[in-house]
Write a structure and sequence with these properties.
Helix content: 10-25%
Shape: globular
Order of helices and strands: EHEHEHEHEEEEEEEH
Structural class: alpha/beta
Number of strands: 11
Amino acid sequence: RQAQQPRVLVFSKTAGFRHSSIETGIALVKKIGAEQGFAVDATEDASAFNDANLRKYRAVVFMSTTGDILNDTQQDALERYIQAGGGWVGVHSATDTEYEWPWYGKLAGAWFKSHPLNPNVRKATFRVRDKSHVSTQGFPNTIEREDEFYNYKYINPDIHVLIDIDESTYQGGENGANHPMSWYHEFDGGRAWYTNMGHTDETFSDPLFLRHLTAGIRYAMVKAALDYKRSRP
């Protein structure tokens, strides 16, 4: 009997702004799964966040979620999942989510404050700060990108920054010389990986972004079975 294919859950519920690129992002994760050998389930139904269901997944991807999307019981289920060794991936506005839930802000690594206006999509230079991680291996030192660049009002000091943005190359940056755009960290028993990229549809057809996201999901996918004995009740 063949071992069951690993599964990844993509969650894209929005309670605020809804990005038109969400469906493009979900389609890309499904394509990555088909190529990398994992199954992908996509939902906007928050009731999927319960222990029995989350146990099925090696990672959960928050695809441009916004606002208050999980109730207290569902929040507890995500916390237990991460404590059991689960993985979390955040794309773009996953940091514009659940501002009243301090644990989530630490998991995601930052909270959205603002972005440039008129236009909010701009060109700027990204700097690759760490090429030792699987999701930035072989990357150039700098990347010219057009996307929507967030300013953050909270940044978890424990994150490992992979890519930051050179604020001198565009107008509207407010985080100064160390303005992260992609990062990862181990957190509360699990793993988290996040990228600010993903506002535009075009981002999801960028070959470098494809490599970045593929390896980010791979990093987050737990190596062993979840162990709910490690979760707080």
